[in-house]
Structure formats: C-alpha cells, structure tokens
Amino acid sequence: MPAVILKERQASITRGGAGSGAGSGAGGGGCGLGGAAGTGQGQPSGAGIACEQASVAGSVSQRACVFCGARVVLNPITDAFHIVHGPIGCASYTWDIRGSMSSSGELYRHSFSTDMGETDVVFGGERKLARAIDEAVAAHHPPLIFVYATCIAGVIGDDVAAVCKAAEQRHQIRCIPVQAPGFSGHKAIGYRLAGDALMRLFGGQACPREKAHGINFLGDFNLAGEQWIIRNYLKELGIEVLTGITGDSRYETLMRAPQAALNIVQCAGSMHNLARRMHDELGIPWISVSFYGVEDTADSLLRLAEAYGGAQAAARARALCHRERERLAPVLKRYRRRLGGRRAAIYVGGGFKAISLIRQFRELGMETVMVGTQTGRPEDYEVIRSIVSPDCVVLDDANPAELERFMIEGGADILVGGVKERPLAYKLGVAFCDHNHERKHPLAGFVGVQNFAEEINASMNSPVWSYV
Ligand code: SF4
After folding, report:
1. 39 and 272 in contact (C-beta within 8 Å)?
2. Nearest C-alpha neighbor of 141 from the set 102, 120, 171, 161
C-alpha cells in the first residue's frame, strides 16, 4: 500500500546521462557549479528539464511558500528583529526548524508575529503593525527590523512599506519590508525577495574597487557551525571573510559587504539573484563554491585561492587539501567497504547540494538512482544529468507519491532530504539522512565528510531494518 496516492503529476522528470558535461564552468575543476568570476559565464545551457515554474495546483508539492523562502535566508542575521505580519501560523517558521548558529546575539532565535485576526482583516492591520514595531524597539533596541507581509496582509492590501518607512523615521533604525505573501509564487521567489531586501539594506553606494578587500560568503547559513569550519580553512589560506550572507551575520558586519573584493556563492538557488545584483550594482565579482564532499571542498578552496589569494594562498590551499585528503583516505576506505554498491536517493532544496551529494556518494562507492530538488536552476540540472548514470531519475518539484515511486523503482537504500521527506523514507523502510536546515551536526568541509560517512553508515547498517 503506497504511503501517498498519486493523483496529479507534479514533478518535471528526466533521466541522467543526457547532459552536455559542461558542468565545470570557466572556473574549471570538479565543482561543476562555477562560472567565471563576476558573470556566471561558462554555465551550461540548461535545456532539458522544466524547472523554476509554479507548482501544479492541487498537487502536494514538497516546496515551502514564498514567505518561508525569504525567512530562511534572512533569519540567520543574529541581531535582527523579524516580525511576521500575518496570522500566527506563518510564524511557525522559526529558528527551531532552521538551526543556524550565532557567535554573538540570540535575538534572531525568537519569532514575533502581529497575530492578525478577524478584526484586522476587516479594518486593516497597519496600526497593529506600527504598534508591534514600537514595542520591539522599546523592548529590544534592535539595529535592524525585517517585516514580512504574509498571505492575509497581502490579500487585504496593508501598506507595509509605508508603515516601515514611518517606523524608520520615528526610530532612526533600518526597518525593511519583505512583501512575501505565500500565494505570490513559490519558495525561490522568496529567495529573490530576501536578496532584494539585503540590497536595500546595503544601499546603492559602491565601494571604489581599488579599496575593495576580503570576501563575502553568500549562501551559507552556519548550520551546526559549518561556516566556522570553512572560515578556519580560509584563515589558514590568509583570506579575510567580511561577512556571511547570512550565516552568523550582524547588521554591522552586513554593512561591510559592499567593500568586498569577491563574493563566493554556495547556495546559488537562494543567492544567485543577490550575487548578480551585487555584481551589476556594486561591482563585486563572484564565483560559485560548494564545501560538501572531498572533491568539491578541495576544488572550491583551490579556485577561491587562485581567484583571490594569489600564488601564496594557492600553495597553502594545496597543502591543506593534501593534508585533509591523507587524513580522510583510511576513513573513506573503511566506509566504502561497508557502503560500496548500495543505492542512494536525493531530494534537497537546491541544485548545488544535490550535485555535491552525488559526488559524495560516489566517493563512498555508492550509486545515485534518484535525484531531485525543490528550486534547482536549469544549469544545475544539466550538471546533474551529466554526472549521474543514464538510469538515474532526475526530477524538479516532486510530490511525495513521485518520490516514493522512483525510490522503489530505483531500489534506493537511503534517502537524503529534509524534515518533510523523513517520514516517507521511514514508511518505506529505507534509511534516511537529514541534510536540511534542522540538522545539528556539521556536514560541510573535510570535517563534514567524515560526519556524513558515519551518519550514512549508521543509518543504512542499523539493525532496525531487519525488523521492518
Ligand atoms: S502560504 Fe501564506 S499563510 Fe501559509 S505560511 Fe505561507 S505566507 Fe503564511
């Protein structure tokens, strides 16, 4: 008996092996995500799968809504005050399900809502929102407030931008509106809105390029302290990080972002628009990186060192990667003996992670039989298709029934996904690895390679499966 009955076809589906193999981009190497710094040149054409489209009405997409997309990007700003202007249910997207770590304040871990009710729907919620902002300033003195307009505020047409503008003048702090009603698209639209909100925060003043220095780390949210691991590597290379965007960032560090000489972009799905705007409007070039798996971590460090740090940094990067590869070789050999020949299914938020996971499973001797994302871009899918076997099912914006069907067809032994995919795996008696924002242990960098292998092994070779 299937866990979910398929009524409508939701996902766009294709199979592997049809890509152009153009995934290395102008940056070269194994990452498969990198374009030339600044322009994204060298990206594959992206033909072959329908993605970045609205979900089918009536089908239960695994995607979250526009507001969720905006909130997950902005929430890791640790001293910001986030007010959800809508009914209380929207406010359930909180730090508790997005466990980014902070080295300073903890204000961002709270969730605030105007809790709109029937009276607000009839008479409007603007005065209530203004009062909420005044209360927040009086009680917490935040340097920065984000106000998210969710579905109800969007339907009744509250002028959230005007309320925020008045609040900025009243309190002399930044108060940024994020018009993100869930009905206005899908999660990736929320990513774009979050990037636009950050650009409003930065202002349009470009730093003279001769004074530019350091890098910004876009698309890392410091889950389980992963950004700190990567920052340590970069410190060893002699590369200064001005700010994470938005992992472990603060108002003060974010405002340094326009001074950067280079942006590195990990989660391109959430940050591509911001990277493009920072290039076009502030003159900051960017390269794509991924710090998941041995292959992609080493490739990203080497390309970053060459793009920014020069010969000395490149030499240090080679030494660091050699040291870590040596350390990990016996670990991976041990796990390959236990995992080699098994089959993996992947369903994650964005394309960069799916690409790195396919390579990580290959490092463990495993084959990927199904891979999909919620918000992958055409160029991501072309890279994916070029690195999986012809039988591997590649799908965009799937529903649970489709995931179930292709996992069964492919004979998957483990599913990598997030909180919404976990019950599906367990109902099928299949092992599961949480690679989403809820995870509490780092999977990035060389440290994460070992953690990942240990978790995959512990889940797949657990004795519990013999009782299912
Ligand atoms: S779909 Fe609308 S009501 Fe539901 S969580 Fe998103 S913004 Fe809130």
Report:
1. no
2. 171
Q: How far apart are CA 178 and CA 433, in angstroms?
A: 33
Mutate which of 67, 92, 94, 187 for ligand 1 pocket (most atoms within 8 A of beta carbon): 67
Cα of 51 to ligand 1 centre, how many Å? 22
For the structural domain made of 66-185, what CATH number should be given?
3.40.50.1980
Tell me the CA distances in angstroms from 44 to 134, 288, 297, 394, one per residue in order. Answer: 49, 14, 21, 17
> Domain ranges in the chain?
66-185
User: What does residue 193 show for φ and ψ, rounded to 5 degrees?
Assistant: -60, -40
- Nearest atom in ligand 1 to 152's CA: 3
pLDDT in tens, 61-93: 778 899 999 999 999 999 999 999 999 999 887
Ligand 1 site: residues with CB under 6 angstroms? 65, 67, 86, 90, 150-151, 181-182
Pick the closest to residue 271 from 346, 234, 221, 222 (CA basis): 221
CA pair distance 228, 231, nearest whole angstrom: 5
Q: Name the residue with the closest Cα to ligand 1, atom 6.
A: 182
Contact 173, 143 (CB under 8 A): yes
DSSP secondary structure string, 250-303? -HHHHTTGGG-SEEEES-HHHHHHHHHHHHHHH---EEE---SSHHHHHHHHHH
11 has a pLDDT exceeding 90: no
Structural contact between residues 357 and 435, judged by C-beta atoms closer than 8 angstroms: yes
**Ligand 1 atom nearest to 150, measured from its CA:** 7
Whether cis (ω within 30° of 0) applies to the bond prior to 373 is no
Residues sharing a CB contact under 8 Å with residue 251, sequence separation 6 or more, in sequence order: 77, 79, 80, 143, 144, 174
**208: three-class secondary structure by DSSP:** coil
Tokens of 343: 């089959």
pLDDT digits (tens, 9 = 90+) for 363-404: 999 999 999 999 899 999 999 999 999 999 999 999 999 999
